[in-house]
Specification:
By secondary structure, the chain is an alpha/beta fold. It has three domains: 165 residues, Glycogen Phosphorylase B (Rossmann fold); 149 residues, 3-Layer(aba) Sandwich (Rossmann fold), CATH 3.40.50; 111 residues. It has 17 helices and 14 strands. The chain has an eight-stranded mixed β-sheet, with helices on both faces. Helix 7 links the parallel strand 12 and strand 13. Helix 12 packs antiparallel against helix 13, helix 14 packs antiparallel against helix 15 and helix 14 packs parallel to helix 16.
Length: 456
């Protein structure tokens, strides 16, 4: 059975990338042939076969190259939610079995040829519109790598770590909580770990260590006493599972995926973050029990071995692949696919939006914009109801306005016309278009659309 696992991320500091790597490592190669396709958003014109099982492909040429790659596989898997590039390529290739893995709390199944949604927690599953086409498969931990320390490096201190990127949305951040916690217990050290966590953003606090992105996370967990992550609506919380495998007790928020597998006072702590005034007392309760919580630490390790081990996760994926392929007859083509039905326009617009957000200059983006507007196809408003597209349209419409200001009215006007002809109307681009001096017939259409929106 041949599987293509597609991803936009790789590296040690990313939980999604770790799960992709685990699948590559642990899927039964006697049954499954795995191809990893990394889609690079930072380079152009890249197509590289890194090894027989790895392809690196830049986003700008992905849609042109992926169909040929996909024709040779049975299953296409990507990290959701809506990905018009991968889904378009799969449909062009005539593939029935497209699986999305939802790592965020949002609806999936945003493309017609996605046949199944893997949810990394029940929290994610509850956000899906069709539960009958979903499975819950927890992310997993390599429990042979993430192990408790035989001798802790800092036995004289209680270490609390927060592994999270700097911009993660939190109920409460350790950086802000630490001084208040330290006032009650001066035998503490705090570690901030993850992207952006390499320097203080406020007043420097002596007990706070900024460690940034680390490749030795298992060492940090094994030498910390507690892992604090009070994030808002986390889909799973892989760091909590990794901490448990190392005997480091997790302290997690009540409203995320980690609360599904962390049992309060048994193998960790679950904090009711709906009551902000109770957060610090709840953390202090955990810290004050240090030295009397060895049973909980053993239970955390046991939970990781029994429930959260990566080999359990991979086994569930293997069962899912076999079941879906047997039902879908993946080796058969799904019939003729008319290009006008495929979201080529959306694919190119998403590419443009991603490049614009990365800070590429107008000069660099102009060729991509021209390619977008020269596409004969229009937009499908039915596919663009997903909230994701509101942000994409705002970005690309802002770029179109920049094109007008730089003297490229014709290209921008063709983009505006495609939106309006596709019955996609919103005030921002309509007003910019109207103020830019379009032809008389276009002005009439724009004013009518604005009247419909109540903005005339």
């Amino acid at each position: 059975m041949r599987i293509a696992i597609c991803s936009y991320s790789q590296g040690v500091g990313n939980g999604i990338a770790r799960m992709d790597e685990y699948l590559l490592q642990y899927l039964d190669r006697g049954t499954f042939s795995v191809l990893y396709v990394f889609i690079d958003t930072k380079k152009d014109g890249l197509f590289e076969r890194v090894s027989p099982g790895r392809i690196h492909l830049s986003l700008d040429i992905a849609l042109e190259n992926l169909p040929d790659i996909f024709r040779h596989v049975d299953i296409i898997q990507f990290n959701g939610s809506y990905d018009p590039v991968i889904c378009s390529a799969a449909e062009i290739a005539g593939k029935k079995v497209v699986i999305e893995v939802m790592h965020n709390i949002e609806p999936g199944m945003m493309h017609r040829n996605v046949c199944h949604t893997v949810c990394v927690s029940r929290t994610v599953q509850r956000a899906q519109l069709n539960a009958s086409k979903t499975s819950v498969i927890y992310n997993g931990v390599d429990t042979q790598k993430f192990v408790p320390a035989r001798i802790r490096r800092y036995p004289e201190k209680i270490v609390v770590m927060q592994p999270a990127r700097r911009d993660k949305v939190m109920h409460a951040n350790l950086e802000n909580l630490a001084p208040r916690i330290f006032a009650h217990n001066g035998n503490l050290e705090f570690w901030m770990v993850g992207p952006g966590q390499d320097t203080a953003y406020g007043e420097n606090f002596s007990a706070m260590k900024y460690l940034g992105v680390r490749a030795d996370m298992e060492e940090l967990y094994a030498n910390a006493d507690f892992m604090l992550l009070l994030s808002k609506g986390d889909s799973f919380g892989l760091v909590a599972a990794e901490a448990m495998a190392c005997g480091c007790l997790p302290i997690v928020s009540h409203d995320g995926g980690a609360a599904e597998f962390v049992e309060h006072l048994k193998d960790g702590y679950v904090v009711d973050c709906s009551r902000p005034e109770g957060i610090v007392p709840a953390i202090l309760e955990a810290l004050n029990a240090r030295g009397e919580d060895e049973v909980m630490r053993l239970a955390a390790r046991r939970k990781a071995l029994d429930v959260l081990d990566i080999k359990n996760s991979v086994w569930h994926y293997e069962q899912l692949y076999a079941e879906i392929v047997s039902k879908s007859c993946a080796h058969e083509s799904c019939g003729a696919c008319l290009s006008k039905e495929l979201p080529i326009m959306e694919s190119r617009m998403m590419t443009l939006a991603m490049y614009h957000r990365q800070g590429r200059s107008l000069c660099e983006l102009a060729p991509f914009f021209s390619k977008l507007v020269l596409t004969e196809q229009g937009f499908d408003p039915g596919r663009l109801r997903h909230p994701f597209w509101g942000n994409v349209f705002e970005i690309v419409s802002s770029l179109a306005h920049e094109m007008v200001l730089s003297g490229h009215k014709d290209v921008a006007f063709r983009f505006y016309d495609k939106l309006l002809s596709s019955r996609i109307i919103f005030p921002f681009y309509l007003q910019n278009w109207l103020e830019s001096g379009p032809a008389l017939d276009a002005r009439t259409r724009i004013r009518h659309a604005l009247d419909v929106l109540g903005c005339g």
